[in-house]
Amino acid sequence: MDSLTxxxxxxxxxxxxxxxxxxxxxxxxxxxxxxxxPDLDALIxxxxxxxxxxxxxxxxxxxxxxxxxxxxxxxxxxxxxHFLRWWLALWLVLITHPLLDTMTIYGTQLLLPFTNHPxxxxxxxIIDPAYTLPLIVGVVAAVRCKDAVRGLHWNRIGLALSTLxxxxxxxxxxxxxxxxxxxxxxxxxxxxxxxxxxxxxxxLLWRVVAIADDPADPxxxxxxxxxxxxxxxxxxxxxxxxxxxxxxHAAAPPVARLSAFTHGFVKAAVSPQGQLRITDxxxxxxxxxxxxFDLGPLHAVGQTPATQVxxxxxxxxxxxxxxxxxxxxxxxxxxxxxxx
Length: 340
Hints:
Elements: H1 3-18, H2 24-36, H3 49-54, H4 63-78, H5 83-101, H6 129-144, H7 148-186, E1 193-198, E2 205-211, E3 219-226, E4 237-240, H8 243-248, H9 253-261, E5 266-270, E6 275-280, E7 284-285, E8 288-289, E9 292-297, E10 307-308, H10 315-325
Antiparallel strand pairs: 1-2, 2-3, 3-4, 5-6, 6-9, 7-8, 9-10
Helix pairs in contact: 1-2, 1-5, 1-6, 1-7, 2-5, 4-5, 6-7
């Protein structure tokens, strides 16, 4: 999740666990610090744009390493008072950070050093005000309320509402996935890999990406489904996946690395400059994606550092479309060209 959300979650958790054992402002401050620490790995430059992506949310988000760091932070915060309680509070702050990140689609390597598997449920977008605002309101109330008991009560309410929202996102995601799989069967597409993730800032409108079981299939399928849609067939579009290029360069380290990190949700193409371009299909929408990488000329893929190439649709039209489409209006995305 975004830094503000992690800061708010860390503060809310620390205030809730410490209760009246310390000043609310102190619990808020230490919760914010501990809630932010894991994301400092984003400042590390590995010398390669693709490596910077796949090595984010790695060791700094591993539950084991964070558990080891917790008593050190607790010793610094406690200064001889309520050490065990500070340990519990800051341990919960540290581990809820990667657990919340796991709710997004990016990929969080929770179980290092035992496995580098990137976990990502993809039920919430990286920025979602409906999750973040209750946390902020609760923490502000805890700090500013003259009645400490009442302030702590509001903080607990904020935590409860944000947690319930995460539960709702999982229910909505499952509902959309069932619809999508049924629709794929109706159109004769056999796809075990189906990605369902919300479009920006909410959990009513969802993007679905399906890749057929046959690795040689040259296309992937994309659709948008709202929880508020009336019963009507899903509008699927098909797009080139570059399966021949993926197969030809599968052994190249950057291709293998991104394919593993995205669980196979990638496409490949030749860039206008003649380089192999590999794209993470999970974050973005056709034809604009956050994580696309040029890997060098086709005869020398991976021999030079990967270069990130990002593109986004115009923000204004995109947000207006999301606002209408999430309410169930059957409107095609403004960034997709109509078929010839």
